[in-house]
Amino acid sequence: MQPGSAEELLADLDLADEDATGVIDHLDRLPVDERPTNLMASVQPDELVLTDGQQEATMALPEGKSYVSIAPFVDETHDCFYHSLTTCLGEMAGEDVDVVITDSETGEAVVDESTTTFDNGFVGFWVPSDITGTIKVTAEGKTGTTEFSTRNDGPTCVTDLKLK
């Protein structure tokens, strides 16, 4: 194991054998009080960037796939661009939500599912890379819609989806 390798940074979490998809899915779903405080994990458009303050490592995301993390809200939100798997917190933890993510070019829903937000108040989805479209979330009789992009200049953290 080389110093600065992703495996070294993830060894303490028993995630050294995981690819970027497994690491992202695991960290985003971890209860907030179990999240590693010495690890920053940032989801970029085409890679996961890991750092423990001493060293940094990257893991490539699957080709053709992008991770979009969504924090619907009613009252409070935060500005974010690249989702932090260890520090980002949304207001709606453990809430049942219906999510529809639509590709604007084809009009097709790339996600249409009912789920529950993670302990951090987010839901995350693997969607096709290089698309734009809309995200619609419904919860507790309220609905919100926002635009998104999985192009290289698009955010991986969607925090502007207000439910009304």
Describe this structure in words.
The protein has about 160 residues and is mainly beta. The chain folds into two domains: about 5-60, no CATH class; about 65-160, Immunoglobulin-like, CATH 2.60.40. About 10% of the residues lie in helices and about 35% in strands. The chain contains two helices and ten strands. The protein has a four-stranded antiparallel sheet with strand order 6-5-8-9, with no helix packed on it. It has a three-stranded antiparallel sheet with strand order 1-2-3, covered by helices on one side. Strands 7-4-10 form a three-stranded mixed sheet, with no helix packed on it. Strand 5 and strand 6 form a beta hairpin. The longest helix is centred in the N-terminal third of the chain and has 10 residues, at about 20-30. The mean pLDDT is about 95. It holds the Pfam family CueP.
Q: Tally the structural domains.
A: 2
Overall pLDDT, averaged? 93
The succession of helices and strands, N to C, reads: HHEEEEEEEEEE
What is the name of the CATH topology of the largest domain?
A: Immunoglobulin-like
Supply the helix-strand structural class.
Answer: mainly beta
CATH class of the largest domain: Mainly Beta
User: Got a strand count?
Assistant: 10
The description of the largest β-sheet is: 4 strands, antiparallel
Overall 3D shape: globular
Tell me the Rg in angstroms.
Answer: 16 Å
Q: What's the tally of helices?
A: 2
Structure summarized in a few sentences:
10% of the residues lie in helices and 37% in strands. With 164 residues, it is mainly beta. β1 (40-43) and β2 form a beta hairpin.
